[in-house]
Design a protein that fits this description.
This protein is an alpha+beta fold and about 120 residues long. The chain is about 25% helix and about 35% strand. It has four helices and nine strands. It has a four-stranded antiparallel β-sheet with strand order 3-2-5-6, with no helix packed on it. It has a three-stranded mixed β-sheet with strand order 4-1-9, with no helix packed on it. It has a two-stranded antiparallel sheet with strand order 7-8.
Length: about 120
């Protein structure tokens, strides 16, 4: 009986793990562009040049801007969706930890591809 109780408690503890434990509070995002070598700004912070994979804290960032000399700058929102893994934590603390840390959300998609258009110059 004691072993069954220990197994049951262990199983409940495993099933109520939060999204922060299972999936973490950060997520990798990949940004590519055509042509390559464009600067990537996430919420105004220069993160590097394409192709780029960067690890971001979940539920913190809102937009990606890609720019390259001679091409039009493109900005897109970073979409966030609820991470269903956080539902497992509802029995533990009503998912409040996941909501506070941002782990209850994930970036979707995690790959962003930008096709840059050349800036047209006026002919005189």
């Amino acid at each position: 009986m004691k072993i069954q109780s220990i197994l049951l408690v262990s199983l409940v503890a495993l099933l109520t793990s939060c999204a922060g434990i299972i999936n973490g509070t950060s997520q990798s995002i990949t940004v590519t562009s055509t042509p390559e070598g464009a600067e990537v700004f996430i919420d105004g912070n220069n993160m590097g040049e394409t192709p780029l994979t960067v690890k971001l804290k979940k539920n913190k960032y809102d937009n990606i801007m890609v720019k390259k000399s001679g091409y039009k700058t493109v900005t897109r929102p970073i979409s966030k969706v609820y991470d269903n893994t956080a539902l497992l934590n509802i029995f533990w603390d009503l998912s409040t930890t996941d909501m506070i840390t941002g782990a209850a959300y994930e970036y979707e998609p995690s790959n962003y591809n930008f096709t840059l258009s050349k800036v047209e110059t006026e002919k005189k």
